[in-house]
């Protein structure tokens, strides 16, 4: 088996389906026999809540107190690497799916840019040989350029950008590319060790059915071609039922063929993209 790949789900905006796509593609791929680790590095921990609800992980003990024995990313940052144990950090959900949960009990401290902390994720991926054990490691990033994002990018081979299909998002995209480029070439060239953090592509999300939208997507694709950014053929349509949906409901559990086939198709397109980028 070739080495696993680490992928950040990245966009400095919130509400663009980062978490939704991260958990849904992860869930689909593990059912398809890929070994997946999801890392929830967003202090809002939406991804964690979603997996906890789905897999019945209780955050409270019998007395209604917050359990301290659930693995979490907080423990990764607290522990001294030498004594660090995987079982304090990695939670197994299915034979093919593991999760490094966010911490639901405390608000993460906003850390100063302490480089030892920023490198921790990268270090445990190496130390615990995680790339040898997983096909894909997905990192669900927060919508800010923060300690957490730096930590995620430092550990990543690729990034994937869910984005709404509007002009502002378009400009944001080009900015994001510059930020990543600067990160690789100026800020962290040594730690990146030749991983040049390629963009797998943009997945357009919340796409509504209208003539105006069709034209906008045309414009976006033209712009993306000029900027050398890949845009996924599979667009994530706007579904009003997802706005109000319960966290624990995964698309695989819904009786909605169009949603199901979207996740299937976008996941397969993701695999094709990775293969293509790896082949280079
Ligand atoms: N295709 C969709 N159509 C409409 N709403 C969606 C869709 N996908 C996700 N949502 C909802 O939009 C909100 C934001 O999505 P989320 O994935 O949490 O975004 P992000 O992680 O980028 O902040 C969530 O409430 C989610 O349920
Ligand atoms: Mg999110």
Give a written overview of the molecule.
This protein is of the alpha/beta class and 280 residues long. It has one domain: Rossmann fold. Helix content is 44%, strand content 14%. The protein contains twelve helices and seven strands. The chain has helices at residues 18-31, 46-55, 73-78, 115-118, 120-127, 130-133, 147-155, 167-187, 189-192, 211-227, 240-243, 257-279; strands at residues 5-9, 36-40, 91-94, 97-100, 136-140, 158-164, 198-205. It has a seven-stranded mixed beta sheet, sandwiched between helices. A hairpin with a 2-residue loop joins strand 3 and strand 4 (97-100). Helix 1 packs across helix 12 (257-279). Bound molecules: adenosine-5'-diphosphate and magnesium ion. Adenosine-5'-diphosphate is lined by residues 14-20, 46, 143, 206, 236, 238-239, 242-243, 245.
Q: Can you lay out the helices and strands and say which pair or pack?
A:
Elements: E1 5-9, H1 18-31, E2 36-40, H2 46-55, H3 73-78, E3 91-94, E4 97-100, H4 115-118, H5 120-127, H6 130-133, E5 136-140, H7 147-155, E6 158-164, H8 167-187, H9 189-192, E7 198-205, H10 211-227, H11 240-243, H12 257-279
Parallel strand pairs: 1-5, 1-6, 2-4, 2-5, 6-7
Antiparallel strand pairs: 3-4
